[in-house]
Design a protein that fits this description.
The chain is mostly beta strands. Helices cover 4% and strands 65% of the residues. The chain folds into two domains: 96 residues, Sandwich (Immunoglobulin-like); 485 residues, Beta Barrel (Maltoporin, Chain A), CATH 2.40.170.
């Protein structure tokens, strides 16, 4: 880890020129109109001459005068503007030394000619924006994101790693991420969320927020924080919106469409967005396991070829009605659906002491249908200036239907048919959530804000698992592999937080959140398999201090909890072959994590270092060998603890006006401490992730983007995943003010292979796997916006169900 930090610091110093700090020079001047009268409240900006980056901003006083204090040595220019006047700028000037006072010439603003009063000004956001508690990814600013899914965008985001084999998402090496859609938490299990995001079109996404230090008003669930996906919405008066369509081909056709509109008139605002996608692709995998038993070595080689077809829809329909200037009532309905079909052919070769023993072939089909809907009612009321109260209640319903059909044939080592077997496995899981919350915010003074609130959640589900064999033309249920699990859970929370502006350079935030949880899981044959009742206090604290206009430091601490996912407690069963299966674990315990981080920002560059220790960390699909039965069972397990050190460096580079680059480098050190069959296991791994983006702005409204990432080896529990990466290409042509067409090639090098291995022979645990989820894909996307462009501020709203959906799995 020391080497990673050293490399990061060297790279940082190469790209960043440390300017002179703490200069005390002063710049002053005045703003007048054509008649020589002062323009009160005119905007005045001090800009860096090299890159036009804002250094300081102010407004002219009642005499039209302005001043900038504490200005470092360098070259600058000043620009001023005011409504109804044309902007004006000074010539370049230079600040040479400290304690210098520079008087600027008078800035005279001329009135805008009447023919130019209706001017539309557009600005392009940067792809990445670093804030005190989060990193913002402006998806609309990326060409290669066009036609992609939300999951593909996340895979290419700085500090984010997606493990498609285990259906997990990690930030800065930490999994246990909560996913929110427009500030509303998804209560689906992790695997469900990964699959949902793999069907959600990036064309319907405005931005993605990676919230690494969540405030106290968000649940303490998840050690890595939150990913908030903000869907496109507009605040225009009248009726307006946009639509897009995508057509592509990889190892199958990729199609998608998005539509969103907003209608605002009088006191009512109605908004809707809908997206649909269909993909057909190939999935291939191979695996190897070796088990030692009574002096014999049993080896299994497996290869799978599968065709997947996935249809996905995402829909929202909502309305806000403003009863008065203080009171707004909102209602929101959402629906998601995912229909997954797969046809798979499996071949397994079994060896005993390096000699062929048995050959297995299987033809399997699977349906995995997820459907959900939710309804939210919320009320916001402003009690007084700076005092707001927000109440909301939500109901969410999910239903998962997942039947498997297996047809297996066995042959001896000479290739002679022995017997065949037909089985089927069904899983039906309905889930229900009721969530309500009350939040209150008060401005105690100009520099202190108070937030407080309470929240309650009630959840239940039934997980029905049936396994049957076809015996002489009749289906016979296997009771040992069939079960019905029921879970009831409720938890309540209360929080209080303060935000304090200590001075113009220092901001502090701190909060306490208390949560109490009741969980009961049982089955038809056994009650109270899990019966837990526990309460925890979760503190968080952050500090941001601006050294000067270019340099900022921050520090944060938080304590988090990761509760077991619902589907992992009431397990599914998936058979790869007779010797390997995936299942859940009803004995999972919640994990507690403590995390501290420190960051430094210089202009547009930032460096962040963090340390996390998580007790009872959950690792997904950890293999356990039953040598007597010659079987490997993979299921989620609690580790003793997991330690993680990470360093993130972000370096934007402007080569020329038409060529810009962004590099994001994440280095991590992981240590896993686990018990495997009552024996201590310790594994350490260093990892580096490099994320790159280059944008070329060309004449005639053309632009090109080249992006990609590289991920070195990393740990998932006691499993080591090998390196992987990808390279993407995008071309955009703006056809007019409201039309654009994008062409992109994703996974250009066909390099997105997931390869994991276990090499612990002393624990009789040896094996590896290789999976390919994505292929080189060509896509074309057409986008058009429609409607009026007159703007009005949209209501900033949340639904209160931001924290539960991450515990449901598609």
């Amino acid at each position: 880890m020391k080497k990673i930090v050293q490399i990061a610091m060297i790279l940082f110093l190469v790209f960043v020129k440390i300017d002179t700090l703490y200069a005390q020079s002063k710049i002053r001047g005045s703003v007048i109109d054509a008649n020589g009268k002062p323009i009160i409240a005119a905007t005045v900006l001090l800009l860096n001459s090299a890159d036009s980056v804002l250094v300081k901003g102010t407004i002219a006083n009642n005499s039209g005068n302005y001043s900038f204090d504490n200005i470092a040595a360098g070259k600058y220019f000043i620009t001023s503007s005011y409504v109804g006047f044309s902007p004006v700028s000074t010539t370049l000037f230079q600040v040479l030394s400290n304690n210098e006072t520079i008087d600027q010439d008078v800035l005279k603003l001329e009135p805008v000619p009447s023919a130019l009063t209706n001017v539309t000004v557009t600005a392009k956001r940067p792809l990445y924006e670093q804030k005190s508690d989060r990193l913002v990814i402006n998806v609309e600013s990326s060409i290669t994101s066009s036609g992609n899914t939300a999951l593909e965008v996340l895979e290419r985001s700085p500090g984010v790693s997606v493990n498609r084999q285990n259906n997990t998402i990690a930030i800065l090496g930490k999994d246990g991420v909560n996913v929110m859609i427009n500030g509303k938490l998804s209560y689906m299990p992790a695997s469900a969320i990964v699959q949902m995001l793999d069907g959600m079109s990036a064309g319907n996404i405005e931005k993605i927020e990676l919230i690494t230090t969540p405030p106290a008003n968000l649940d303490a669930e998840g050690k890595a924080g939150y990913i908030n996906i903000v869907l496109k919405q507009n605040d225009n008066i009248g009726t307006n919106g946009s639509f897009s369509g995508t057509l592509g081909y990889g190892k199958g056709w990729v199609t998608g469409a998005n539509l969103n509109f907003n209608h605002r008139k009088g006191k009512a605002n109605i908004y809707e967005d809908f997206s649909y996608s269909r993909t057909r692709s190939l999935f291939t995998s191979s695996g190897y396991t070796r088990i030692s038993n009574s002096g014999n070595i049993y080896e299994t080689y497996t290869h799978n070829d599968r065709t997947d077809t996935v249809r996905f829809h995402n829909a929202r329909l909502g309305m806000d009605y403003q009863f008065s200037s203080r009171t707004v009532l909102g209602i929101l309905f959402t629906s998601n659906g995912r229909w997954f079909r797969q046809a798979e052919h499996t071949t397994s070769s079994f060896y005993k002491n390096s000699n062929p023993d048995t050959l297995f072939t299987g033809t399997n089909t699977e349906l995995n249908n997820w459907q959900d809907y939710s309804i939210n009612l919320n009320l916001q009321h402003n009690l007084a200036k700076g005092d707001n109260i927000f109440f909301n209640v939500s109901y969410l319903h999910y239903k998962n239907n997942q039947p498997f059909n297996y047809y297996s044939q066995y042959y001896n080592k000479a290739g002679t048919f022995i017997y065949d077997e037909t089985t089927r496995n069904g899983k039906l899981t309905p889930l229900n959530f009721w969530i309500s919350g009350l939040d209150y915010s008060k401005k105690l003074s100009e520099k202190i804000n108070l937030d407080a609130g309470i929240k309650g959640t009630i959840a239940d589900f039934t997980n029905e698992l049936n396994f049957e064999r076809l015996v002489q033309g009749n289906w016979a249920k296997d009771a040992s592999l069939s079960s019905i699990y029921t879970l009831k859970e409720n938890y309540s929370a209360a929080y209080i937080s303060l935000s304090v502006v200590a001075n113009e350079k220092t901001t502090l935030k701190g909060g306490l959140r208390y949560e109490y949880t009741n969980t009961n899981l049982g089955s038809e044959s056994q009650k109270n398999i899990v019966d837990r009742h526990y309460g925890k206090l979760f503190p968080n604290f952050s500090l941001s201090h601006k050294l000067n206009e270019k340099n900022t430091v921050n520090f944060s601490y938080s304590m988090r909890i990761t509760r077991p996912k619902f589907n992992d407690l009431a397990p599914f069963t998936y058979y790869v072959n007779r010797n390997f299966l995936l299942t859940g674990n009803s004995g999972l315990q919640p994990a507690i994590a403590h995390a501290i981080s420190a960051g430094y920002t210089f202009k547009k560059y930032f460096l962040q270092v963090s340390f996390t220790k998580e007790d009872d960390a959950t690792a997904f699909f950890q293999p356990t060998v039953d040598s007597a039965a010659n079987k490997t069972i993979a299921k989620p397990e609690n580790l003793v603890n997991q330690k993680l050190v990470s360093a993130v460096l972000s370096v934007p580079v402007t080569v020329a006006k038409w060529w810009s680059m962004q590099y994001n480098i994440t280095g991590t050190w992981q240590q896993v401490n686990a018990l495997y069959k009552n024996e201590q296991v310790k594994i350490e791994q260093k990892n580096i992730n490099i994320n790159m983006r280059q944008v070329f702005t060309l004449p005639k409204n053309f632009s090109i983007e080249l992006s990609g990432f590289y991920q070195s080896k990393q740990l998932n529990g006691i499993t080591v995943f090998k390196s992987l990466g990808t390279l993407d290409f995008g071309l955009r042509k703006k056809l007019g003010a409201k039309d654009a067409i994008n062409f992109s090639v994703n996974n250009l090098l066909n390099s997105m292979d997931f390869r994991g291995n276990n090499n612990l022979p002393e624990q009789n645990l040896v094996g590896d796997s290789r999976l390919r989820f994505s292929w080189r894909t060509f896509k074309a996307t057409y986008t058009r916006s429609f409607g009026k462009d007159k703007l009005k501020r949209i209501r900033n709203r949340a639904t209160g169900s931001e924290d539960e959906k991450s515990r449901i799995q598609y």
